[in-house]
Amino acid sequence: MTESALITAWGKARGHIIAAQAAPTFLLTAVIGFLAVGLATADPTVRIATAGILLASGILGALAQIAAANEGLAVIADLRALDQPSSLAQCIVAMGKWVNVVRFLTPTIFVVVYVALLAALFLGAR
Hints:
The protein is mainly alpha-helical. It has four helices and no strands. The longest helix is centred in the middle third of the chain and has 37 residues, at 44-80. It is rod-shaped, with a radius of gyration of 19 Å. It starts with a helix and ends with a helix.
């Protein structure tokens, strides 16, 4: 692939990472708002459904982020192999170490938030 095509592929992977975070972030924020107005005292089936929706969204979001991060790392590997990369290509290659934040840290944070929301849903004030 040409450098230009690789940079375009990097942009697409980065866009997918950002988009993959939107739905889970929205859902987590919405559930926090719903907890503030009484979700923790709703019928148990509603709370179980809420937990399921959050889990499904989180898994899909994490998989999309991990896949996009892996694609980004593949692009970075190809850019790194170029004989004379442009300044932009060198900048993208330098970002490689931060792609692991998307692969590992972001899903870990989701799990922590998910567990906290489960505690609020099922162990919160009645």
